[in-house]
Amino acid sequence: MKRGVLIVLSGPSGVGKGTVRKALFEEPDIDFTYSISMTTRQPRNGEVDGEDYFFVNRNEFEENITAGNMLEYAEYVGNYYGTPKSFIDNTLASGHDVFLEIDVQGALQVKEKMPEGAYIFLTPPDLQALKERLVGRGTDDPEIIDRRVAAASSEIRMMSKYDYAVVNDEVQLAVQRIKDIVKVERLRVNRILPEYIAMIEELEK
Ligand SMILES: Nc1nc2c(ncn2[C@@H]2O[C@H](COP(=O)(O)OP(=O)(O)O)[C@@H](O)[C@H]2O)c(=O)[nH]1
Ligand SMILES: Nc1ncnc2c1ncn2[C@@H]1O[C@H](COP(=O)(O)OP(=O)(O)O)[C@@H](O)[C@H]1O
């Protein structure tokens, strides 16, 4: 059976990861399974437990670390964020593509453990645009925004550690670039064109 592709979208807070991910998941020819992260951050208005994140307290998070359940985790601006491991392994083995949207520290930890994924760094056109997006989103206090912009300048320096960089100038352009990257990766992971995978599976029945 063909194996799924691991797609990791990463980049500074406010660059538009969530926005690009939502647009990508609305594409009719895209069928990625989203890896839901665990966090100790408070839910924002409208966020749903088990859909946006698994919201837990610090104790619960630390128990999961000790039990070895996390593929990676990071502490970011005072909260834990992490990726539950078994879900990813099982989904990839069943032939489905897994999509991770995580911060730079986390993505680089995952890359150490699962180098065969497609590691995509989403970058803003410039730092001013990034700050404007964080302000425009209106979800964070000015002090948190300044901390996120400061974190971004060191995160952007990590871009060269990724397989691909995609600029999020226009959401639909970024979506198209990511779709093109996944096509290439599918070919690399399975060493065969996706059109032929369906044919082979049909013959194997
Ligand atoms: N390491 C790691 N980072 C994560 C994970 N999930 C989310 N993040 C990142 O944590 C940072 C803060 O997330 P959040 O508070 O939701 O803010 P937002 O992404 O700016 O909307 C962002 O850069 C997220 O991409 C995860 O499972 N692991
Ligand atoms: N290409 C873009 N051009 C302009 N604004 C954007 C673009 N992509 C996202 N945004 C806006 O930037 C803000 C941050 O986007 P978000 O998806 O929450 O970022 P992240 O998930 O990386 O923290 C949101 O208000 C969003 O509407």
UniProtKB/TrEMBL annotation:
Catalytically driven reaction(s): GMP + ATP = GDP + ADP
Cell compartments where the protein resides: Cytoplasm
Gene Ontology cellular-component annotations: cytosol
Residue sites binding ATP per the record: G11, P12, S13, G14, V15, G16, K17, G18
PANTHER family registered for this protein in UniProt: GUANYLATE KINASE, GUANYLATE KINASE-RELATED
Function: Essential for recycling GMP and indirectly, cGMP.
Name used for this protein in its record: Guanylate kinase
Organism: Weissella koreensis
Record gene name: gmk
